[in-house]
């Protein structure tokens, strides 16, 4: 057995066998599970609703807040002006100090060289300034800073002299701020939690149904029962229908096993008697040989039917691939019209059923022996190669015959299908490659047929790699 890796693996075929992701739509959203799709759609809907309501509330609050702010500022200006007008000079100084200490109002003379910035930083500020000008007079100036001092500054006149009234800006904060942001984050967090809960409730019964369907696919009918007493009526009806279907499939499987056992017994016994009678009663040696060959052919066809109808459950265990290949190739290597070349790593382990794997390789070797003979020499040259790729082992069985038409390749694994005349010299049942495909799937692998670039049919198998016996 060679130590080198086989050089004739088709890279495109290896890539196809190694691909784990399905082809088709590549839109990222299409690859998400149902849970995440539902979650994201609900989250977008809820967050959009929150933002819409937030904008609506801000719009509804804008007009009353602007009106309230302008009324308060106008009232402060009018009250301050009235108090200063009717106070004497001594009391006026005490009044100004009290207003600054108690109410945060500062009144200073307005000088011609004062530098100020108008209060127009946002829509609310511009609306307040406009409303104050309407209430106090068009000459009223509303500023956000005067001579570098921030605040809300409103100009007014007392006996022809101009003054500034500085109000505490914190009392007239614009709408929003940290309170709005806190409530926004709280509402968003609660909405996302609710979306996750709803998505989980929707996804859970579908996930249970998927698990139960996978168990039915594996032939484990007894462990695929779903709860028939859930509260949701639609889910309850689906679960009841699925359980009845699983029970019916289990009954069909049981009836099939009984029927196949009966067929095997009822056909094998008369075939054995017929073979014995033929060998004892037919004098012509040639005729006796042909009749015995026909009986052997019938017996082989019965074996094929039984193999194809074999239950889907198999016990997987680490198997030394080289030992199985050597065993399957041993009997064929002695035939004069067969040449087998084996090229694979030593001690290569695969996760499989040893008996089933041997049946698969025997089918492929027999198929190559029958239909893969060289047109020139009449000898079937068969190459068996295997390499390890990450968690998988790729196995290739290839002949050097005439190959198969490309349009027929995908049909070769269909039950009872027979290819072109050049590959159907024997009177088989058309189940050999179908058995191989079905068995490989039972063992968690993949099977692919293709024409080799240098001629002949190539059968490529991918099985799980085992790390230890």
Automatic annotation (TrEMBL):
InterPro entries associated with the record: 2C_sensor_his_kinase, HAMP_dom, HATPase_C_sf, HATPase_dom, His_kinase_dom, HisK_dim/P_dom, HisK_dim/P_sf, RisS_PPD
Q: Which superkingdom is the protein from? A: Bacteria
UniProt membrane topology term: Multi-pass membrane protein
Provide the taxonomic classification: Bacteria, Pseudomonadati, Pseudomonadota, Betaproteobacteria, Burkholderiales
Write down what this protein is called: histidine kinase
Question: Keywords on this record?
Answer: ATP-binding, Cell inner membrane, Cell membrane, Kinase, Membrane, Nucleotide-binding, Phosphoprotein, Transferase, Transmembrane, Transmembrane helix, Two-component regulatory system
> Where does the UniProt annotation locate this protein?
Cell inner membrane
Q: Where is the Histidine kinase domain?
A: 262-467
Q: Which residues cross the membrane?
A: 34-54, 180-202
Q: EC number(s) in its UniProt entry? A: 2.7.13.3
Domain named HAMP: residues: 200-254
Pfam families xref list: HAMP, HATPase_c, HisKA, RisS_PPD
Q: Which organism is it from?
A: Rhodoferax saidenbachensis
Q: Which SUPFAM superfamilies match?
A: ATPase domain of HSP90 chaperone/DNA topoisomerase II/histidine kinase, Homodimeric domain of signal transducing histidine kinase
Gene Ontology MF, one: protein histidine kinase activity
